[in-house]
Design a protein that fits this description.
It is built from six helices and no strands. It has about 120 residues and is mainly α.
Length: about 120
C-alpha cells in the first residue's frame, strides 16, 4: 500500500520530502536555460519515485543521479563560491537526514538539501 492510513509516522513514505520537490517545479518552470529545466524535471521525477515508493533501486538511482548533478552543477556554475558552499551544506545535511525519519530529519532534507540545491540550480 502506498499511503498507509493507520500511521502518522513517515517510516515508509516521506510525503514531506516529496512536497519539498516543489522547489524544483519552480526551477523547471522559471529557469532560463533548457539544460536547467531538463535536470530539474529529472530531479522531480526521480524524487517522486524515491520518496513516494521507497523502492530500493529507485532510491539508489536517485542518490547516484543527484550526486552526478551536484558535481556537474558545482563544477560548471559561475555562481561561486555560493554553489560550492551550498553543495557542502547539502551533502552534510543529506548524510544527517538519511535514515532520520523524524519530522526534523524530513524538514532538514527539504530545506537544507532540496531547497538550497534548487537555489543553486536556479543560478546555474
Amino acid at each position: 500500500m502506498i499511503f498507509p492510513m493507520t500511521s502518522c509516522r513517515y517510516e515508509n513514505i516521506s510525503v514531506i520530502k516529496a512536497i519539498g520537490l516543489l522547489s524544483y517545479v519552480g526551477v523547471a518552470v522559471y529557469a532560463e536555460s533548457l539544460r536547467t529545466k531538463i535536470v530539474a524535471s529529472i530531479v522531480i521525477i526521480q524524487g517522486c519515485l524515491c520518496h513516494l515508493t521507497q523502492i530500493k533501486h529507485c532510491m539508489y538511482w536517485d542518490v547516484l543521479c543527484n550526486v552526478i548533478f551536484i558535481l556537474w552543477v558545482t563544477t560548471t556554475s559561475k555562481w561561486q563560491p555560493q554553489t560550492f558552499i551550498i553543495a557542502c551544506v547539502s551533502v552534510l545535511s543529506f548524510m544527517w537526514s538519511t535514515g532520520n525519519d523524524s519530522i526534523a530529519g524530513n524538514l532538514c532534507h527539504v530545506f537544507l538539501v532540496q531547497g538550497i540545491c534548487a537555489i543553486a540550480m536556479m543560478h546555474w
